[in-house]
Amino acid sequence: MLNADLPGWRVSLPVFDGPLDLLLYLIKKEEMNIYDIEVGKITQQYLLHLDMITQTDLEMAGDFLVVAATLLYIKSRTLLPEDQQLPEEESEEGEDPRWELIRQLVEYKKFKDASFELQLREGRREKIYYRETEQQRPTIIPTGLGEVGVFDLVKAFQRILDRAREKEGFREIYEERYTVNDKIQYILDRLDKEETVLFTALFNDVCSRPEIVVTFLALLELVRLKQIKARQSDAFSEIEIYRGPTPTLV
Amino acid sequence: MDSLKIIEAILFAANRPLSEEEIAALLIRGGETAGLLFELESLSAEVIRQMMLEYTKRLEETSLQLVSVAGGYRLATREEFAPWISAMFDEAKPPRLSSPALETLAVIAYRQPISRAEIEAVRGVAVGGVLETLVDRAVIRVAGRADVPGRPLIYETTPFFLEHFGLRDLNDLPNVEELKRVKLPDPPILENPQQPELLHESSGHTQEN
Fold it and tell me: What is the extent of the structural domain holding B75?
C-alpha cells in the first residue's frame, strides 16, 4: 500500500491521456467487466490516482475531478436503498446509474483502439519511401479547378492589404461610409454581368483600407451563405469568384 | 507501346499520388503528342484499376511496390528495405504523434467535421493544445463553423493525413463502419463561454483540391 508519510516517496505512474483512460486502465488492472463495474472499488482506486495527478498535472486535474465527481455520485446512488433513491432527471425508471458512464467508456475505448491502429499504420508508412522528386517543372496535370478554402482567401486578402499599404501615403481624411450590405450588392451585381470575377478585380478601384476590409467581409459572408464560390485552377493562379450552383437569394 | 510501361514511367516521375482519372487523362494527352491514340471511353476508372493490378504483378520481382494512398497510386519501396534507405538520409523526422494527439485525431477522422466540445465529450479531457499540434502537423484543418449556438470551429482531416497514415481514403480507416455510426456523447451546452479559438493556418501542405 501507499505510504504517503514517507518523505520523498515517489511513484512512477503510467501516463494517462485523461480520466477515461485512467478508468479503462483500472478496470483492466482489476480484471473487471467493463459492463459491470464495481463502482466502490473503482472509485477508491481512482481517488488514489487522482491525488497524485492533481499534484503533478494541474492542467488535466479539472477533467479528472469531473469524472471523480461522477463516480462518487454513482456510488452514493447505489448506496441508498432503492426506494429512497431520488428519481434522476431524464433517466428511465430503474436505469442503472452506471450506464451513462459505461456507455462513454465503451465509446471512448473504440476510438482509443482505432488510434492504436492508426499508430501502427503510421509506423508502417514510415518504412516505405517514395521517390523524393523536387518538382522542378510546373505540373499541368489536369486536376480540374479546385475549390478554394477560407485560408486561401485570407492569404489573398493579405496580399491586397499589403498592396494597399504600399499605395498609402499622405491623403486627406474624410468620412468613409461602406457597409457590408452595399458591398454584397456590389459583388452580386458584378457576378450578374460577368460569370466569374477575379478576386483581385474586386479590389481594383478600392483604395482605402476600411473599404478593402468591408469588401472582404462581404465576400466571406457571401461564401458563408453559399451564394458564391471561390476556385483556383492551380497553386499559383488567381482566385476566381463565381456563383454557387444553387443560388437562392435571401 | 505497352501502356503499362507508359504508366510506370508516369508513376516514376510523379511526386504525388495520381488518381485513375489523372492517369487516363495523361495517357490521352501524351498519346496525342506521341501519335498514339488512346480513347477516353476505353480508359474508364475500372480499366485503369485493372491495369494497376496487372502492374502490381510485374513489380513482384522488384523492390518496389504500388501503394494506393490519398486517392491515387504511388510507387514506393517495400518496407523491408527501410534500414538501407534510412541509412542514406540524415533524417530528422518530426516526432511521432503522441497518444493524446492520436486519440484526438482518431475522433476527428471518423466523425469529421467535428467541434472541439464534441471531441472533448468523447475523450473526457480538454483538447485545445492537442488540436493546435494537429493543425501544426497539417493532419487536420479548420473546416468552418458549426451551425449551433456559439458557432464553434469545426475540424476535418487533410489529404496529408491520408498520406501520413498511408490511407487510400477515409473509408480505408480501421473499423470505419462501426466508428462512423457509434453515437457520440452530447457535448455540454455552453455553460462557460469558451475562450475564443484562434483561427490558425496550417503550415505547409496546403492542398489544391
Answer: 3-88
